[in-house]
Amino acid sequence: MSRHSTPGLGGPPNPFEAGPGPSRRPSVSHRPSVSRQPAYQSLRRRHRRFGVRATAVAVGGFLLYVLLSSFAPGLMNTPASGHLTVGLALGLGQFALMGLIVWRYLVHMRTRVTPVVRGLRGLVRHQASTERERAAFEARTAPREEEFRPW
Question: Which residues is 131 bridged to in the sheet?
Answer without folding.
Answer: none
